[in-house]
Amino acid sequence: MGARMDTTRNPAMLFALPLFLILVFLVADVEGLFVASMGVGLIVLIRWMALDSTYRTVRRRLRLAQAHANHYLLPEDLDYPCQMLLRRAQNAVEAIMNSRVHKAGLIDSIENQVSLPEEIWQIGQRLRRLSVMHAEHGKIIPRELPPGMEDAFKPYTSALDAAWTSLSQRVRHLEKYAKQVLKADKVYHAHRRLETLAARTPEYQQLIAETVRDELAHERIRELADQAAHVRKLFEESIMQARQAAGELLRSPLT
């Protein structure tokens, strides 16, 4: 930490206060000057106490931030590619957590609430380390390598590339899960609409029976039933696919 700044210093006050006291002395007696001096002193004291309290609060927050530096990430902790990769992971998790099927408990909502934030944190931690090592790597390796030296540095570059590939694949798994959840969301929405119509199926059946010839009426009624069954099957399949995608992701957590 640097030296403490004197926040109570104000150049204008250095001139204003003496001039004010001189003015009071000229227009009032000694008692008035004493009262004015006490008032000015009280104002300065209150202002100093307020600024000192603010300063101590800032210092305390800075100490807490330093003590828990490993428990949060800042944008500047990551280089730009890592920032973008982490943003993709966060977008995928947000899509899952905000989905209707998640909120309705049709997928493993409890597991999502526990595992997905931890997944984001683990990805972020590794991206921070990768950013640091990548920056150091760029400083250590000369831009122009002597002939025949490329192979000596290649394993280190390959290690960074492998780490990036692994984390990118992890994020793609998250995005795959989110895609399946959003697909299930759309089918779920259609399923809910169909349930509303299903409650009125007898009305539609009666309408067809009363207005269409017998054979054609039976065909239309069967179509209503088949369509309802088809949408229900799509809904069940989409939920199953979302659960399978979650299973693939959570079977190998980043810990």
From TrEMBL:
<feature type="transmembrane region" description="Helical">
    <location>
        <begin position="12"/>
        <end position="28"/>
    </location>
</feature>
<keyword id="KW-0812">Transmembrane</keyword>
<protein>
    <recommendedName>
        <fullName>5-bromo-4-chloroindolyl phosphate hydrolysis protein</fullName>
    </recommendedName>
</protein>
<keyword id="KW-1133">Transmembrane helix</keyword>
<keyword id="KW-0472">Membrane</keyword>
<feature type="transmembrane region" description="Helical">
    <location>
        <begin position="34"/>
        <end position="51"/>
    </location>
</feature>
